[in-house]
Specification:
InterPro entries: Polyketide_cyclase/dehydratase, START-like_dom_sf. Pfam families: Polyketide_cyc2. This is SRPBCC family protein. This protein is an alpha+beta fold and 161 residues long. It has one domain (27-155): Alpha-D-Glucose-1,6-Bisphosphate, Chain A, domain 4 (2-Layer Sandwich). Helix content is 36%, strand content 34%. It contains five helices and seven strands. The chain has a seven-stranded antiparallel β-sheet, with helices on one face.
């Protein structure tokens, strides 16, 4: 009986500690990577604002099966639905709907001396659950390398015009 009581008390205390630690973690996570592309701003902007071009360089989109493009701003597949939700002079934002999860992705573009800097980001809002907040700690290690390879592939696209 003493062992059972000790196990229950230990479990409650351990869960409490994990909950307290996770409450200090942020509820939103941003993973971001950037690259400089030797191409005019207009050609990079037009290329990124048409979602049909993403499969040529974006390694995430390349893995989706049964891709369909109802419009230049939306992609549907078996795994995810992506919609470009806003486009401004320097920002392109998209919403990704995957199973029961919705997250935001986008690109910031900055032009300087015929070179365009593209910053690609993913924004995740996590719930207060300790396991979700703890899982969000590895998003950068999971997404970062693929984002870097994708941006390198984008750079190789020859966007000069």
């Amino acid at each position: 009986m003493k062992i059972l009581k000790l196990a229950i008390i230990s479990s409650v205390v351990l869960f409490g500690l994990v909950f307290i630690i996770s409450s200090f973690m942020p509820s939103s996570v941003k993973v971001s990577r950037a690259t400089d592309i030797d191409a005019p701003y207009d050609s990079v902007y037009k290329y990124l604002s048409d979602i049909r071009n993403w499969e040529k360089w974006n390694l995430y989109v390349d893995t989706f099966t049964n891709r369909q493009y109802p419009s230049p701003t939306s992609l549907t597949s078996d795994q995810v639905n992506i919609n470009i939700t806003s486009v401004s002079d320097s920002t392109i934002k998209a919403e990704w709907h995957q199973k029961n999860t919705v997250f935001t992705s986008g690109y910031y573009l900055v032009a300087h001396d015929n070179i365009t800097t593209v910053q690609w980001f993913f924004d995740f809002k996590v719930k207060w659950y300790p396991w979700e907040k703890l899982a969000s700690m590895v998003y950068d290690q999971q997404l970062g390398p693929v984002m870097e390879k994708s941006l390198a592939k984008l750079k190789e696209q020859g966007l000069r015009k």
